[in-house]
């Protein structure tokens, strides 16, 4: 059974461009990871400060490995001063 992740980043208004660039940098390296089936970055059309990753992983081991990558850990640290709210990451399974 695949694992689905929804990860939401909300930027401070003055940091939208910087956060967008930072988050876009995750796409290529993450999509190359073993077990990554889908990794999309979405922007809320009603709120440009709201960015959401929608992810699908082959299994728990794949997402757990992703959480340990240097590119993800670095982005999380670098994003902290740009955020207006705490990072919200949720893990789902299909019904």
Task: Characterise this structure.
The chain is an alpha+beta fold. It has one domain (3-93): Alpha-Beta Plaits. It contains 3 helices and 4 strands, in the order βαββααβ. It has a 4-stranded antiparallel beta sheet with strand order 2-3-1-4. Helix 1 runs antiparallel to helix 3. The radius of gyration is 13 Å and the shape is globular.
Question: Mind sketching the topology for me?
Answer:
Blueprint: E1 3-10, H1 16-31, E2 36-43, E3 50-57, H2 60-66, H3 70-79, E4 88-93
Antiparallel strand pairs: 1-3, 1-4, 2-3
Q: Which key phrases capture this entry?
A:
alpha+beta; 35% helix; Alpha-Beta Plaits; 95 residues; 3 helices; four-stranded antiparallel beta sheet; 4 strands
